[in-house]
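fyi for ur records
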Amino acid sequence: MSERKRFHPLAIVIDGFKGLKKLSFFILLMFFNGELTSHFGLIALSALVLLVLIQALWKYFSQTYQISSEKIILYRGVFRKRETDIPYERIQTIKQRQWFFFKPFNVIQLLIETAGGDSTQAEASMPAVNIEVWEWIEKYRQGEQSESDDQSPSNLGGEKVSDAADYTVTNSQIVLFALTDLSIIATLIAVIIFISEFIPENWITTATSMAESLLRTGWLAALSILFISLIVVMLLSLLRTFIQYYNFQVNRTNRTLTIESGLFERKIQKIPLEKIQGLKIRQQPIRKLLGISTVELLLAGGQETEGESGIVKKLYILPIISDQQLYETLSDLLPEWNFTRPKIKFVSRKKLWYFWRWKLLFIPIAAGLAFLNYWLALAAVAVMLLLMLNSWLEEKHQGYHIQTAHRLCIQNIEWFTKVQTFVERQKVQSFTERTTRWLFPKQIGHINLFIKTGDNLETLGLNFIDETDIYKLSRFYRNKN
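which gave:
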């Protein structure tokens, strides 16, 4: 067994950065209120930075770790001590991260997830360790024990051997992925709304006056502003995506997929095939015209969350790929699935009325709003038209294909995006079918399949389908062969 060791001193930098990130809201609030220019504001900021530094130093000197041939042991605390034992057979996933300033020191961060831990958060974190520690852990996990248990991880030599990447995203593909990503627009709007709550009123008044002056100059100026705004949004999307997916690679070794990406923070995640619950192929309207798709993995655990909201991030196995290469590449990465292009049976065509009937309630709502505010009425009509357009696409493209006795593909429309979900029967947690007193005489109903993803259940549904299709899907789920 190796001796107890502290983490690398770079752990202080990581903990300090996390502490400042938590306080970023208060720092921004002080900035917008102009308090950073006053002596009191500078003293308050210095006190916050000092508090973060003291907390980071305290964590560094109160945490140690120990590696043995059977388990990893993490020690925390000074007055209230805590010891965490993690046997290798309990480890499901080890995520490896390496910030750009870690690389010259051969230091990485390890996030360890076990079968009994929270599926959206690592059970144990080693914030900064030498890369040889990870190699030592991998040898023990694979059962390749050293000749002596007293040997230190730092004594491991030799260069790391890596397999050739089965799939790599090029820089040109990253640019195309960024330019066709529509989510950045919604994010930008949310940020503007958030910031506007804290911007001084005199700033807003000045900006409004400038906008009114520009509008008086004519539509050319307004269109120019709109064009510049779109350019800024595209550049922001490009920058964010390039940083996140730089040198994206997927490797397949034995029963493990390794996904690696990132510019400033290099992330490496090893995924056992047993954790894969399903797979989604997404295609937005723009990407459909260009003949490209994205492929997302659904896992039983190991998916990260975004901020305080706890929303699970999408884990892409293929963030961007041409439709011609799609199924061939998937077959190379996951030969056990024997992927083929699904032959979707469309199940809700000629049932548009059922999809539209509740959306039409916006008509009397818009009529009522017209007496109060003309713009509110127009907004209600716009929302109705968007919902009806999405429902029309759902009515045209909703369907399924039972590819094998064990695999099902369900196709849906999620806000104008075509989504094909592939799932194995043994991964389906439950199956429900339902109808109403009005749909039952017409032999029409709905079905839902539930698969586990993280701490939640992913719902796969088909609406307003015939009873014969409900019977086929029910028989697929209940088939024990």
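Confidence is low (pLDDT under 50) at residues 144-165, 194-199. thats all i got for now
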